[in-house]
Amino acid sequence: MRKWVFWAVLLLLLTADAVWSGTGIVGGRGGLRNADLPMESSSRNNELLAITPDQVYRGNLLLVNREYAVHAEGVATDIIKLSEHPELREGYGLMDHSIRLSKEVAKRFGGMVKAAAGDGVSQFLISSGYRSKKEQEQLFAQKGSDYALPAGNSEHNIGFSLDIGSAGQEMSRAPEGRWLREHAAEYGFILRYPEDKTEITGIEYEPWHFRYVGLPHSLIMQEQHWTLEEYLAVLKERQSYSATVGGKTYIITYHAVSGNTVIPVPADRGYELSGNNMDGVILTELPSSTE
Is residue 237 among the annotated active site residues? Predict the structure, then answer.
């Protein structure tokens, strides 16, 4: 009886008071601006969702670096060999036929390359995608710690990252590199290791390494010039962010996870959930169908 009363009280509290506040990002394509989040902007119609500890290690926003290794749950379940899927390879080449990637990320990349072609930029190559832990071990043994990460600590071990080249010239100077730096965020990708963020990422500038994190996260990071490390730290500190992209508003909240945890999620609209690979999950409340 006491257990039932506890959950009933918790449900009432969460549905009545789960209103997010803080400083957010508001804007649209071509620029975002800082703004205060009105408390009414968040959905008040919530339901409870049970979060198990393994959810911390799954999703598009996993932080993978020298400190935080990939868990088995974090590896994409739709890894494919790109050479076996010509329908996904329009507009770019492969350095070799063994390159693999998440199928969903490959679709997103294809859409981005098609948009670049519309701007006259069309000499894209993929030189590396997903690597198994065994392949990462071999690479680490060959190149050493100055040029490779240990097995499990590379973003290539989850299937959401790829190294992109140009058939014309080196990526830091190529039209393909310039186009991606300007537009990749519009398609959910980020330049993972910027030139001036080495002290934060622990990795030297890699103009070829892009990571899929999804919208609106990529646009927020681009506008604020944040790395994934910085973005996740801000979400944890502020607990809540709002972003309006293309006239549609997203609400993003951080939730700490300790053991089995229950969090409020919107009952009247869609949402996405991603672990951060550290200590919690990021809930992204999607725009309503009427927006």
Answer: no
Fill in the amino acid letter for 76.
Answer: A
Collapsing DSSP to helix, strand or coil, 252 comes out as strand
Neighbour-count burial for 170-184, b at 16+ CB within 10 Å, e otherwise: ebeebbbbebbbebb
Task: Find the catalytic residue in 206, 223, 230, 272.
Answer: 206
| DSSP code string of 145-208 | TTT-PPTTSSGGGTTSEEEEEESSS-TTTSHHHHHHHHHGGGGTEEESS-TT-HHHHSS---TT
140 CB burial (10 A radius; 0-12, 13-18, 19+): middle
Q: What is the tens place of the pLDDT at every residue in 66-91?
A: 999 999 999 999 999 999 999 999 99
pLDDT at 200: 96
Amino acid identity of residue 277, one-letter, is N
pTM of the model: 0.84
